[in-house]
Amino acid sequence: MITTQAFPTIRAIQRSAWNDCFPGALEDWDYYVAVENAAIADFQWRYLAVYKEGTLVAVAAAFITHYRLDTTVSGAGKRLTEGVERLWPGLLQLGLYALGSPVAERCDAGFASGVPQTLRPQLLKHLLEAARRDADDFGIGLLAVKDAPSKDPHWRQSCRAAGLQSMPSLPTGVLPLPYGSVDAYLGSLGKSTRKDLRRKLRAPGPRVEWRRTIDDVLPEVMRLYEATLARAELQFERLPAGYFTGVLERLDERAVCVLYWVGERLVAFNLVLVDEHRLVDKFFGHDVEFSRDYNLYFRSWLTNVDYCIQHNIARYECGQAGYASKLRLGCEFQGNSVFFRHRNRLVNGLLMLVKLFIRPDRSDPAMAAAISET
User: Fold this and answer.
1) How confident is the model over 121-148, as pLDDT tens digits?
2) Does residue 361 sit in the same domain as residue 288?
3) Are residues 186 and 157 in the same domain?
4) Which of 13, 62, 171, 348 could tie 342 with a disulfide, CB 3.0–4.6 Å?
5) Which structural domain range is residue 240 located in?
6) What are the BioF2-like acetyltransferase domain coordinates in residue numbering (predicted)?
């Protein structure tokens, strides 16, 4: 007999049972506890569980929020939708119940060890049905799956069977690192990029400090975060200070904040998650006044590349932004998809039309190139 349940906190699910469903994950039970403790504004957390004969066999994180339909739009398309929003406030916002997380790299359903591949589509069906019932209980019409791996046939088949439509989402940048040195990595790049980066490396750089705690510099970190957020075209959530300190505390050696100093001034920071297999870039914040003179983004990039090479880490996972630079820097891209359906047929039909125009690959040529690569 299969049953499902939705919980408001991940603490309702045993730590070992959750982590068993996501072996080796950096964004594990402790990560989600840190996210909950941070109390990110305008989000409500849900955790879906599937049981077979009373034994946990599948789980997924989910969240509730108000979603702007143009969240992944940039450039001219963003300017157009902002004009629409000024004329008709709230027109582009809908209540949303989504599987996935606004602060996780991708949407993954976890399956207990020993669950055969053949059973996974059925368990995904139960997770989607549990999500629909939970959304109905909250009076939310729009159900979505945020950033499911495009190449995962089980997600695609299960979502289509549930009547969800799909569209491309922001691809995830990944840099494989089979190199023995930073110089060897630079040699793999195009000639103009290679020359540019080597020139940047010869210029004076900031002092780099790797930290497990940032309490003493937290106001400066948040100053850099807020300034970077204000410049970003694509942003879904606003992270409070407790997110950064909580992730560092809960994940212990698997989380690091890299600080960049010019004299006594903090000019950039980079929160990363790391284990023996990969380094995940969670957030890079910088002072725009120092960025050009000190090439802060590229310094941070090469610092992470060097760390991976020195520690025999094979993958640098670098997130869902800055596609023009990442194409130059040799990244590969993993495709992601958004699946969605509104329970109101009229609204669902309108969303089918809206998705033809409000797509991430319509407004950013570099993003379109990254999506096409997947």
Assistant:
1) 999 999 999 999 999 999 999 999 999 9
2) no
3) no
4) 348
5) 173-333
6) 192-321
Task: State whether 154 and 238 are in the same domain.
Answer: no
Q: Are residues 323 and 345 in the same domain?
A: no
Q: What is the pLDDT of residues 198-244, one digit of tens each?
A: 998 888 889 999 999 999 999 999 999 999 988 876 666 899 999 99
Based on the domain organization, do 23 and 46 belong to the same domain?
A: yes
Q: Please check whether residues 157 and 122 belong to one and the same domain.
A: yes
The answer to whether residues 25 and 153 belong to one domain is yes
What is the 3-state secondary structure of the chain?
Answer: CEEEEEECCHHHCCHHHHHHHCCCCCCCHHHHHHHHHHCCCCCEEEEEEEEECCEEEEEEEEEEEEEECCCCCCHHHHHHHHHHHHHCCCCCEEEEEEECCCCCCCCCCEECCCCCHHHHHHHHHHHHHHHHHHHHHCCCCEEEEEEEECCCHHHHHHHHHCCCEEEECCCEEEEECCCCCHHHHHHCCCHHHHHHHHHHHHCCCCEEEEECCCHHHHHHHHHHHHHHHHHCCCCCCCCCHHHHHHHHHHHHHHEEEEEEEECCEEEEEEEEEECCCEEEEEEEEECHHHHHHHCHHHHHHHHHHHHHHHCCCCEEEEECCCHHHHHHCCCEEECEEEEEEECCHHHHHHHHHHCCCCCHHHCCHHHHHHHHHC
Please state the pTM of the whole predicted model: 0.90
Counting the structural domains of the chain, the total is 2
